[in-house]
Design brief:
Four copies of one chain form a homotetramer.
Chain A: H1 12-21, H2 34-47, E1 52-56, H3 59-70, E2 76-79, H4 84-87, H5 92-97, E3 101-104, H6 114-122, E4 134-140, H7 151-164, E5 167-172, H8 175-182, E6 197-201, E7 211-215, H9 224-230, H10 238-248, H11 253-274, E8 287-290, H12 294-302, E9 308-309, E10 312-314, E11 317-319, E12 322-325, H13 332-341
Parallel strand pairs in A: 2-3, 2-4, 4-5, 5-6
Antiparallel strand pairs in A: 1-7, 6-7, 8-12, 9-12, 10-11
Helix pairs in contact in A: 1-10, 2-10, 6-7, 8-11, 11-13, 12-13
Chain lengths: 350, 350, 350, 350
C-alpha cells in the first residue's frame, strides 16, 4: 500500500522497548515518569541546544498546540495554501489559537519563496486594528509534495522573521525525511535558522502513535502544559508515548528509517524514469507524483499498490498524477512488484 | 504504589494482541482500519443496544468531546463540585463546548442526590436570557471517592432529564469498577436509565492509553468526527487505539480486571477494619480513604506504598485521610506488605 | 471630508424622534420596550415577508452574529478576498462562529461571479473530515468598491446555495445604496433570491450608531438572543437603538438618504469625466475611485476634502486611486469645492 | 416603574450635548474623533491618576472585555455567586476570556469577606495543572443588593491580590451610587486600593447607552482595541458614545444623578420603616428590598410601580422580598405615590 506513510506498521525496535520497559511497569502519571523526564535532555543532544519537548498523539495537536503559543487570537499565521495546516487540519489552527487566521503566501506550487514572503511582509499594514497582522510564519519541512527547503532559504526566512518580529514555526511531520535528504544537522533546519518551535513526526516513520512538540525559545513553553491539559492532550500514562520517542531518537532510528523510505522512493523514481514514466519532481524524500495511464493505475491498485489520485497544476493546467508514498518498511520487492504491475519488466535485482 | 490506577502497567492480553495484530501490519488511517470499523458492533453487543464508539487518548478528551455534543455554548452542565469535570479537567469542558459553564449540584460528599437535583431543576429560570440554563446532567460512575450510583438512582436522574429536556452524561473513567461492584448489566447503568452518552475508561484498567467515547442517542454522534479532528483527537493510526479497546472488551477482560482491583481494595478494607483502622466508606470499588497516623503514612511510603493525602469533610470538619487506589495488577502480597508497613501483622495468607 | 460614510452626522429626523419619544421616557429593558417590539412588524412590511430583526451596535457585530447562526465551527464561509469580512473585521468571524474559516472566491476585483462560485462548489470535497467544507456564502451588497450585484446574479447564487445546501448571507452595510442604485424592491436583492439572513447598515446612512440584523429563515433566529447576550450585544436600553431603526425605515428615509448619497457621487463622477479625470468604475453607489496626481490629492486634502489612498489592481498592475465616499449630508457645494480644489473650474451651478 | 434603573430615561444634559456637538457634525471614525481622544485625559482628572478609557455599549461587554485582559483561558475569576458576572451575563465571561471559569467566594449574602477570600486563597493549589487557579478577583461595587464595600475592605482585597499575584477588577455598573454613598474620592474605591481595571456604568444613571471601561495598570490596555474589534465593540461612530461619557463626567453629573437616586431610596426606606414595613438592609444606594404582602404588591403594581419579586435567604430560609430601584429621574412624588398605593398615608410633603 502506497497511500500514505501513516499506513505503516510500528517498527520492531520501538515495540521491543515498550515490551521491556513499559508494558509491565508502574510509574508516575502526567509526565512525571522516568522516560518523559528524560525527553528534554534526550532531544537537546539531538538538536545540539537546550530544547523543551512534549509527546503528543497527533500531528494536528502538535502543530496547533505550538501555534497556540506562537500566535494570538487576533493575529494571522502565514503559511502556504497547500500546507497541511491549510488543507488537512480542518479548523484546528483556529480552535487552538482561539481565533487566529491563516494568511497564504506562495511562490512555488508547494513552497513559500523568500521573495514572496519579503514582498508580503513589506506590504502588510501592521497597525491596522481592522486587520489581523501576521504573528508567525509556518513552513512545512518536507513539504506536502515531498520537497525540502534548503538551510539557506530557511535562514532567509529566519532573518525576515527577526526583522518583522514574527515567530517561526516548522511543521515537521516528515522532518526526518528532510534531514535525511539534505544530509545536514537537524539544527541547520531549525534553531540555527531562527526557528522558534517545531513539530517532529514519528507516527509516519516507525512509531505507533506519537509526535514530538519541540520548543527552542523557552519563553514559548510557558503555559503549554495548561494548554495541553485543556485540550485533552495531557496523557495520564504519558510514559507510553515518551518511550516511543525515546526509542525513536536512539541509535539514529529516526534517520535510518527516513533514509530507507527516501531510498525506496528514489529507487522507484529511477525505475520509472528509465521506462519513460514521468514523475513531477525528482524524488527528494519519500513521495513521488507519477503520471500513469488510468489502466496502469487500475493494474497497480488491483495488485495491492493503492495510491491517491493527486491532480497537480502544471503551467496553469491541472494534470493527473498519482501520489506514491514509501515508508520505513517499504521494500525493494514492493517497488519491483509495483513496477511489474504497471508493465515495467524488472530484469535484474533492484 | 497506591497513588492512582493511572500508574498501572498495561495488561499482557492487550500487549499480546498489539504484537500479533498491529505492530507489523499495514492498514488504513483515520479510523478506516479493520479494528476501528468493528468497534461499534463490538460495543453494541456489550451494551445490548446500538452504540456509536470512538477511541480517544485521554479521559478529559473523551468527556469533553462528548459534552461538546450535548451542551451548547450558552448553557450549563450540572455536575458535582467534587467531580473530575469540576476539579481535574482545568478549563477543558469550556474549551470543547465553546463556552458552557458548570453548575454544581450535590447532596452527598461525592454524589448528586435525586432530591437535590429535582429541587435545583424546579428552581431553574429556564428562559432567562441572562443566565445559562442547564442542558446536560453529568454524573461520575464510580464517583471520585469510589462509590457508585444505584441503577434506581440513575433511573430517577434519567426521568428528571427527560422531564426537563436535559441530556444525560456519565463520566465512566471507572465504569468497569462500578459495573463489577454493582454486579449488574452495563445497560442498567447507562442507556436503560436514559443515559445519552458516556465515556468508559480503559487506561486505568489495563490499557496503555485509550478511553472509549460511547454515544447511545445517534443524533449526538453527528459532527463528532469533525469535533475530534479540530481538537487534534482524530488519530491517523487509530487502529492502535482501537485494538486496545478490542482486547479490553473481549473475554470480559474489562470486568475481570476491575473485579480484581475491587477485591484487592475490599481485602485491604477488611484487614484494616480488623485492626481498627478507620476507612471512610466501605470499599465499593477500588479506592479506600484511610485514617492513618502520620507515622504510619511515612512508614508505608518508605516501604514503597505511596498514597495521596486526601482530606475529607466529616460533619463539617476536614479530617486527614490517605487515598489508596488498587488496580488490575495489584497483588495480595502488596496489600500484605502495606499492612505490614503500617504495623499490622498478617499471620495467615490473605 | 470624503474619507468614509461613517464620518457622517446623524440626520435630523432620527434626532427629533429620539428627542420626542426616547429621551425623557421610561420603558422596559433588553428589547421588551415598545419600539423594539414593533421592529419585526416594521421590517416585514419593508421586505414584504415575515422577518426577524435585531438592532446591533456595529456592522461587525451584526455580520458576525448572523454568521454564527449560519455556520458551524468546523465549516467555512465563502466570501470575496476584498470583502469587509476578509479585510476589515479582524478575527471577528472566527470569534463569533467559534472557529469557522473564510474561503475566498472571486472572479472580479470586488465580486464573486456565478461561474467562479459554481466551479468552486463543484470542486469541493464535501465529506473530507480534514477540511472545512463551506456552509455559507457571504456576499457584500453594495461591494467594497461601490458596485452592486444584479438581482439575476443574486438569484443564481441562491440557486447554487440551494443545490449545495449552503446558507446565503448578505453583508448589507450599504444595502440602502444598492437598492437605490438598482431601483428595485429590497426583496429582489434578498429573500426572493434565496437569502437566509442579512445585515442592513444605518450608521453610515443617517443613524447615530445602529445596524439591523435581519433573518428571513426563522430557524436561524433560534438562539440568536443568547448569542447576542454572551457577546455583550444585548443592550439594556435597546429602545434607543430600535428607535433609530424605526425612524430610519419610516417615510423612506433610508432610501432617500441613500439616493442622495448616490447622486452626489454620480454628480462628482460626471464632473470629473467632463474634465478627463479617470474614475475606475462608473459611480454605481456612493463611492468613487479616482486617479489624481499627488499634487491634486494634496490640494484637495488641504481644502478639507480628505480621502483614503486606495491602490487598485488594473490588468495585473497596482495603480494609485483615491477613494471618495459621499453620504446623506454631502452637498453639491462640497462636490464643487472639491472640484475646485483639484483644479476644475465649475462655471455654472451643478 | 421601580423595576430597574435601566428603565430610566436619558438626562437632558446629555441629550443637549449630543444635539449641540454630535448630531450635525462630521468626525473621524473608530475613536479618532475629538471626544474620544479626550476621554483618557478627562477620566484621569476624575480618578486623579492616569487611566486608559474606552466607551462600550453594554455592561456585559465592558466587564468581559476587561476580564479578557486580566485572566487567561485556563485560569479562574473569583467572584460572588450572586454577582452579575455569575448570574446575569450568561456565558459572556467565558466567551471573552476564551475559556476562564468562575470560582465563587462569599461570606455575606452579596459580598465577599476578606476572611473568606484569605482562606480560599490560602487553600488554593496554585500549581495544579489539572485545576484552573484564580488569576483575578472581581468584586461588584455597589453589590447586586445595593450595598457597598468600604475603602478598608477594598484595600485588604488589594493587599491579598498583591500577595498572591492576582489582578483586581471592579464591576462598577453602579459605581457612581457607591461613591455617592461612601462620600469618598473615586480613587479610594479603585486604584488606591490596588484595583487593576474597572467598569463604570452610565446607562443606568442618565446616559442613553454607554459604559466606561477604565484600566489603571497600562500593561492591561495592550491589545484591548483588537479584542474590542473582534467582538464587534469598536464602534465606527464612537464619538456618539464618547460624547455621552464626556457629559456624564462633566460638572459632577454622574455623582449628582447617583446622589439623587440614593436619596430617593433613603426617603422611601425611612417612610416604610416609619410604617413598620421591613426592608432587608438600610438603603445604602438606590435599591431597597421590601417585605410586602401580596396584596400590597398587587396594589403598587396596579398603580404603575412595578417591581421584581426577589426572594432572599434570611438565616437559611428563603423569604419573599420585592426589589425597588430608584434612579436619577425618580421623584419624591413617585415615592409618595408608591407609599399611597401600599396603604401608607403621607400627610405632609416628603
Amino acid at each position: 500500500m502506497f497511500l500514505s506513510d501513516n499506513t505503516a506498521p510500528a517498527c520492531p525496535e520501538i515495540f521491543a522497548f515498550l515490551q521491556q520497559h513499559i508494558q509491565g511497569t508502574t510509574d508516575l502519571p502526567y509526565g512525571d515518569d522516568f522516560y518523559t523526564q528524560q525527553l528534554n535532555e534526550f532531544l537537546s543532544v539531538i538538536f545540539d541546544t537546550d530544547v523543551w519537548v512534549m509527546p503528543v498523539l497527533t500531528g494536528t495537536a502538535a502543530n496547533c498546540l505550538a501555534l497556540g503559543q506562537l500566535c494570538n487570537n487576533y493575529q494571522s499565521i502565514i503559511c502556504h495554501e497547500s500546507s497541511h495546516l491549510a488543507i488537512s487540519e480542518s479548523t484546528a489552527p483556529v480552535f487552538f489559537t482561539g481565533g487566529a487566521r491563516l494568511q497564504y503566501c506562495g511562490g512555488e506550487i508547494d513552497k513559500i519563496t523568500p521573495q514572496q514572503l519579503a514582498q508580503q511582509l513589506e506590504a502588510t499594514h501592521w497597525n491596522d486594528i481592522h486587520g489581523s497582522p501576521p504573528a508567525t510564519l509556518a513552513i512545512t519541512q518536507a513539504t506536502e509534495l515531498g520537497r525540502t527547503y534548503s538551510p539557506e532559504d530557511m535562514q532567509i526566512f529566519g532573518d525576515l522573521c527577526k526583522q518583522y518580529g514574527l515567530n517561526y514555526f516548522v511543521d515537521g511531520a516528515r522532518f526526518a525525511n528532510a534531514v535525511a535528504a539534505r544530509q545536514c544537522h537537524p539544527a541547520e533546519l531549525s534553531w540555527r535558522a531562527g526557528v522558534t518551535a517545531m513539530t517532529l513526526g514519528a507516527s509516519k516513520n516507525g512509531a505507533f502513535n506519537v509526535e514530538a512538540l519541540v520548543i527552542f525559545d523557552p519563553q514559548y513553553a510557558k503555559g503549554i502544559m495548561a494548554r495541553a491539559k485543556r485540550s485533552g492532550h495531557l496523557a495520564s500514562k504519558m510514559r507510553f508515548l515518551s518511550a516511543q520517542l525515546h526509542t525513536y531518537f536512539s541509535n539514529d532510528l529516526w534517520l535510518n528509517n527516513a533514509r530507507h523510505a527516501n531510498q525506496m522512493a528514489a529507487l522507484c523514481d529511477r525505475l520509472l524514469k528509465q521506462h519513460s514514466i514521468e514523475t513531477r519532481f525528482s524524488a527528494h524524500t519519500n513521495q513521488l507524483f507519477i503520471r500513469l495511464t488510468e489502466s496502469q493505475y487500475h493494474s497497480s491498485r488491483d495488485a495491492g499498490y493503492e495510491m491517491y489520485h493527486w491532480p497537480l497544476e502544471d503551467q496553469g493546467i491541472l494534470k493527473d498524477y498519482y501520489r506514491l508514498v514509501t515508508h520505513w518498511s517499504t521494500s525493494a520487492e514492493q517497488i519491483a512488484g509495483f513496477a511489474d504491475a504497471i508493465g515495467i519488466k524488472v530484469t535484474k535485482p533492484i
